[in-house]
Amino acid sequence: MTPEVCPNCGADVPPGARACPACGSCAETGWSGEPEGGGLDLPEEGFDYDEYVRREFGPAEKGRAGGGGGHPALWCGGTVLFLVVLWLLFH
């Protein structure tokens, strides 16, 4: 039977609800503070994100991300400058 108020967190539980909308407690967990969460494939405690990134993507390369090459605005500015110089030389 669904309680009107969650015995775990005190939130109002709608009639016929299968679980508390606030904390997730339900009849299967005995309306306790330990709702079932197995099988969610969540990272274990002490998960080392940096180690995961190294393992999955390899060591970080030195320099800019994306292989360098400069900022697009610098390329555009350099191209415009180059075209102006060519125009001045041949016009």
SSE inventory with pairings:
Blueprint: H1 49-57, H2 72-90
Can you describe what's shown?
This protein is mainly α and 91 residues long. The protein has a domain at 1-61. It is built from two helices and no strands. It has helices at residues 49-57, 72-90. The relative contact order is 0.08.
Brief overview:
This protein is an all-alpha fold. The protein has helices at 49-57, 72-90.
Largest sheet: none
Seen as an oligomer or otherwise, the chain set is single chain
Radius of gyration: 30 Å
Helical proportion, percent range: 25-40%
Q: How much of the residues is beta strand, in percent?
A: under 5%
Features:
elongated, mainly alpha, 91 residues
